[in-house]
Amino acid sequence: MKRLYALVLSLAAFAASAGAQTMYDALTLSENNYNGTARSIALGNALTAVGGDLGSLTLNPAGSSVAGYSQFTITPNISVSSFTTTGTDGMNDEVSTNHTRFNLYNIGTIINVDTGNQFGIKNFSFGFVANSAANYLGEMFGSGINSNTSFMGEMAVLADGTYSNVLNGNYAYENSNAPWRAILGYQTGMISTYGGQNNQYVGTTEAVFDDGSIGLASDLNQEYGRLITGNKTDLLLNFGMNLGDILHMGLNIGMVSTNYRSDSYIRESPVTDIPITFDDGTVVSLREARMRENLRWDASGIYAKFGFILTPGAGLRLGAAIQTPTAMTINERYQIDGYTHFSNSSANAKSTSPENDFTYRLKSPYRFNVGAAWSALGVLLVSADYEMCDYSTMDFRPSYDSDDRYMFIDTNHEIASYMGTAHTFRAGLEVKPVPAIALRVGYNYQTNPQKNADFEYVDSNRNSIALGLGYSSGGSFFADLALRRTTLPDEYVYPYPDYITDDNGQVTTFSPELHNVRTLWDVTCTLGWRF
Q1: What band does 19 get if pLDDT is binned at 50, 70 and 90?
Q2: Is there a domain that residue 289 lies in?
């Protein structure tokens, strides 16, 4: 086998050093997966033409003037993320993991003011509402025995061509242009020079054979784990207006607040001893090596959204809303660390990079949604929505106009080429068998905006189904409960890139690929008061 010295990372592989943004990062930060109140969740968020609920305001700001009363709501939530991970090319075990977290999906108030007019503006509303727009939650784990590749072998390829005194410098992470994983690998003893050259490397799990080729010195026990947490919240400053009980109009000034955390690690240990001889003749064996990466995004942005609801009569409602692109500022922090343990503890080594702090901007796409609803006698409500969002218009930019304007040119080209339009269909049904009780069901389907290498849309979509129960007292108090199951698009994770090729540059030995089947369960309760 031949090592690939001109290492090219696939789009789905993680970056070789800090500060490398991808089109997948842009999608993660731009997507909306609406949460809100228990009622909005139970109705599949098909509320563009319904309104009257604080969870609906993210979809259509005109909904605040529909109810005709002021209200306050708070919505705690418990989310359970379920992953089933299967792998190929080494990490072949099937592993199921669950992770549970408490959230606050909604809190806010709307003040409704009755003008006393018989015609024209009958009432107007204003308020401040926080609705969850995305819930980042997922823990995965992959493992198996790999007979062909090693993350330390990929580190060695990454380091080739860089002199060892550069990788081992006191301020190598800060002052050299070498990839951080290559620096980490050398400083922890995961890689070393060979053949009398101080700029060519071999992994500690590898051997150099008599013919000059490089391969694993032992089969490897491999583990890869990743935990993602965080939330995206829309903070809405809302204004609404009721014109003659026929036309409702509304405006949101939306402030997006996002926090995203990804903590991943990869670990290897030889199945059989790998003896390593140091220059002084000391012989030790590798016990294990572990590398960890930590990525944090804290983002904020602002947008405007305008919408209307038309009530022509006979229980029919029509609604539409359009949202401007969101101008976001992102602070990214990235850190990497690792260690090696040997049979002789005096040979153990560890290294931790500084925390890279990088600020940049993202323009996320505009959105457009329309809806229709029909109600009968106050006991039946049927609603349906459609939403469109063109993710090919996402655009990374430097934090200041004076910065390198070409910093993101390649990533933005990939976005324009391999991202497209997502279409979302939502439907909801509400039945009131008695005035105080409401039974609800909702469905949501969202197409995947990603395209493959042939520029065809990836056929792995998001869908959810929800059930709900509502109670409304004769006074001011009301409460809603929702249970939702969401099937997320399949995900493919590559713990480290392919690095072995033939003389023509074609990959001959693949690194592990992990396939995640993901499900998210939500149990949500809203407590509300009218006044």
Answers
A1: low
A2: yes
